[in-house]
TrEMBL record:
Transmembrane segments: 7-24, 36-51, 63-83
The entry's keywords: Iron, Membrane, Metal-binding, Monooxygenase, Oxidoreductase, Transmembrane, Transmembrane helix
SUPFAM superfamilies: Cytochrome P450
Residues spanning the signal sequence: none
Name of this chain's protein: Cytochrome P450
Pfam families with a match to the protein in the record: p450
The species this protein was found in: Mycena chlorophos
Lineage: Eukaryota, Fungi, Dikarya, Basidiomycota, Agaricomycotina
Pathway membership: Secondary metabolite biosynthesis
PANTHER family named among the record's database cross-references: CYTOCHROME P450 (PTHR24305), P450, PUTATIVE (EUROFUNG)-RELATED (PTHR24305:SF187)
Family membership: Belongs to the cytochrome P450 family.
Cofactor dependence: heme
Length: 560
């Protein structure tokens, strides 16, 4: 083919690439298959049209030539625009690859290193970092209220994959505005002091099961155990009891007999990764077999909901009782799919987060024997009689224990990066002193914010629970050089109207479990543990929306 006839194909194909960029910039794709179809079809159609007008033949080589020119011009134009001074986020610093493509964030999410890398980016670039073509990460105390507080921003597309698109209802975490407020009202009723007392009775049964199993291990000749595993069994069984009136028995079975725990964890992990490219979900939904995890979760939800509906309310009211409004407070009763979706979400939201908090606490205290001894002395003083261990009224007296949880969740938040809020169309915002244009996704990563010396000072990376107890600590930005503990920037349970709906329950749960373990056992890292199973366990944490933990091997001995 002569150079001039090549040009007759290359030039219009390249032009078509530019037109496509122009179009997609205005019309974000809602799925992957529609644009993919057009990206393949257009160069073919163009080659055909050109052949009809006498410019080149309709051959495979001409189709490939047109496709290459089309895709090259489209990609170049996208990359050039994203790096250009005309991009609305051009004024914000960040890694070049992150500015160019979401694949950068996706790769990071796959590695589980998002929290750690984001912190490094803030140390390098400052409070506001461009961490994607249209997203930013903000590490700034004032931004917490501005973004998550009243009049702040709603959740954006990042949360779409958190709901099963084939069901008629979304999970609470994925709702905004009035639908969120309505659902949250029901959740809040389910978390009243009276409801919490009921849940404590449910928790106490599971906690006793845990202690019975650990007693057995403590009395065995080899009292070494992966404590993270047993803590997960407890939090998972408890959430099953809460959400569906029972169903799991990992504590009694000593493992994940029917594989549901593994499925739920895999589901959360996959969601946390897919959330970076939410438009892929409708495409995945069309490919049979690809959604095995979602399908199993769906079946699990409906089977458990069906069983719970058949059984009816038990004497002790579970979360389902309140979510279903079984005592009839609401004018319009929640629908079964709504409750089912929130029931499954409660298990996801409430199991690995609580175990994450307990694991981090355990790690921090075990690596600080002085603090361990003080916590144990406090628990012994508050609960001289071990039979009263499940009485949460005494939690108020466990100041050091509470401070240890604040500090360990500050250093290792169970939701380390979290999801993004989105700037609405036509309403650009100033956040942390920077203009953030419409449609931008804004992350407020707890892991970075909670280790920022402007929010926690001195030694923001050190485990110092006493910082929460010393009266000298001030809320401020550190400008005075005083000790700082900025409570607004403690984001382990998030902040504002969509913060953790079960924060008070979670606190009772983790305090009760920790007090019981410390009162009953001497716990030390196991002698046969590797560094990553003991003193360097923190390095194994993976950020998959909820923090994922590796084994922590400890030895437990019954105390006299
Ligand atoms: C220590 C344990 C826990 C921690 C650290 C924690 C943390 C969080 C965080 C950070 C969020 C905000 C997520 C986001 O915006 O992306 C959240 C939301 C939520 N959590 Fe928790 N959580 C814990 C335990 C629980 C438990 C036990 C339950 C259920 C019984 C639960 C139910 C929820 C719900 C329903 C939401 C969504 C609230 C809304 O969107 O209005 N959480 N949690």
């Amino acid at each position: 083919m002569s150079n001039s006839s090549k040009f007759e194909i290359l030039a219009p194909a390249a032009l078509l690439g530019l037109v496509n960029h122009f179009y997609f910039k205005r019309h974000e794709p809602k799925d992957a298959h529609t644009p993919l179809f057009f990206l393949i079809a257009q160069p073919i159609g163009l080659t055909y049209a050109l052949s009809r007008s006498g410019s080149g033949a309709f051959t495979l080589s001409n189709i490939l030539l047109a496709s290459a020119a089309f895709l090259a011009s489209l990609t170049t134009s996208i990359v050039a625009y994203r790096l250009s001074p005309w991009h609305p986020l051009a004024h914000l610093p960040g890694p070049t690859l992150a500015k160019v493509s979401k694949l950068w964030g996706l790769k990071l999410a796959l590695s589980g290193n998002t929290a750690r890398v984001t912190k490094e980016l803030h140390e390098k670039y400052g409070d506001v970092v461009r961490n994607g073509p249209n997203s930013v990460s903000v590490n700034n105390g004032d931004a917490v209220r501005a973004v998550l507080g009243t009049g702040g921003l709603q959740k954006g597309v990042f949360y779409e994959p958190f709901s099963d698109a084939t069901l008629p209802s979304k999970a609470i975490v994925n709702l905004a505005g009035d639908p969120h407020d309505n659902r949250r009202r029901i959740w809040n009723r389910g978390m009243s002091s009276e409801s919490l007392r009921g849940y404590e009775a449910i928790l106490a049964i599971r906690l006793q099961q845990l202690l019975d199993r650990l007693d057995g291990i403590a009395k065995s000749p080899q009292p070494s155990v992966d404590i993270t595993e047993w803590i997960s069994y407890l939090t998972f069984d408890f959430m099953g009891d809460m959400a569906f009136g029972g169903g799991f028995n990992m504590l009694l079975d000593g493992g994940d007999k029917d594989g549901m725990w593994g499925i739920i964890r895999l589901g959360v992990k996959a969601t946390s990764i897919i959330a970076h490219i939410p438009w892929i979900v409708p495409t995945f939904n069309k490919i049979p077999g690809l959604n095995e995890v979602t399908d199993r979760l769906r079946r699990f939800g409906s089977e458990n909901a069906g069983r719970r509906v058949k059984t009816g309310p038990k004497e002790t009211r579970d979360l389902w009782y309140h979510l279903m409004d079984e005592d009839g407070h609401e004018k319009v009763k929640p629908t079964l799919p709504e409750v089912l979706v929130d029931g499954v979400f409660a298990i996801v939201a409430g199991s690995d987060t609580s175990s994450g908090a307990l694991n981090a606490f355990m790690y921090c205290v075990l690596t600080h024997p002085g603090i361990y001894a003080r916590v144990q002395a406090e628990v012994d003083r508050v609960y001289p009689d071990p039979d009263t261990l499940f009485d949460s009224e005494k939690h108020e007296e466990l100041n050091l224990l509470r401070a240890c949880f604040h500090e360990s969740m500050r250093l290792y938040p169970p939701v380390a990066t979290g999801g993004a809020r989105q700037v609405p169309a036509g309403e650009p915002r100033v956040v942390a002193g920077k203009m953030i244009p419409e449609h931008t996704q804004i992350f407020l990563p707890p892991y970075s914010i909670q280790r920022n010396p402007k929010h926690y000072f001195p030694a923001p990376d050190a485990f110092d629970p006493d910082r929460w107890l010393r009266p000298s600590a001030e809320t401020g930005d550190g400008s005075g050089g005083h000790e700082i503990v900025n409570h607004t920037t403690f984001l382990a349970f998030s902040y504002g109207a969509a913060n953790c709906a079960a924060k008070h329950l979670a606190w009772r749960e983790i305090m009760m479990v920790a007090a019981a373990l410390f009162r009953r056992y001497e716990i030390r890292f196991a002698k046969d543990a590797t560094a990553h199973q003991s003193t360097r366990w923190n390095e194994t944490l993976g950020d998959y929306y909820v923090t994922e933990a590796e084994k922590m091997l400890v030895e437990i001995k019954l105390r006299e």
